[in-house]
Write a structure and sequence with these properties.
The protein is mostly beta strands. The chain has one domain (about 10-89). It contains no helices and 7 strands. The chain has strands at about 10-15, 20-25, 40-45, 50-55, 60-65, 70-85, 85-89. The protein has a 6-stranded antiparallel beta barrel. Strand 6 (about 70-85) and strand 7 (about 85-89) form a beta hairpin. The chain is globular and about 35 Å long. The model has no long low-confidence stretch (mean pLDDT about 85).
């Protein structure tokens, strides 16, 4: 996955630690099959966006759906996280 340069209503951006890719994120306003409380962000990737919870040094990214309907989540370590309203987190 890579940065989607047309993220809507961006809250910030981060650099993931393992490969150094840049990502932007925005608020999740869609309470579809994961709750906004659990995944309050959308991380914008090459083919759209993924539900996520972006924290200061780590992001939890929903990458797929399990057979039982639960989210499959990857944990990404962050090298840098910049909140556009608060600057560097």
């Amino acid at each position: 996955m890579a940065l989607q340069t047309h993220a809507q209503d961006q809250l910030g951006m981060f650099i993931e630690k393992e490969k150094g890719n840049h990502f932007e994120y925005s608020s999740n306003t869609t309470d579809y099959w994961v709750t906004i409380e659990d995944y309050p962000h959308k991380v914008w990737v090459r083919d759209g966006w993924r539900y996520a919870r972006v924290l200061k040094t780590v992001a939890y990214i929903v990458t797929d759906e399990a057979d039982d309907g639960s989210p499959i989540v990857q944990k990404w370590e962050l090298k840098k996280n910049t909140n556009y309203n608060q600057r560097s987190l």
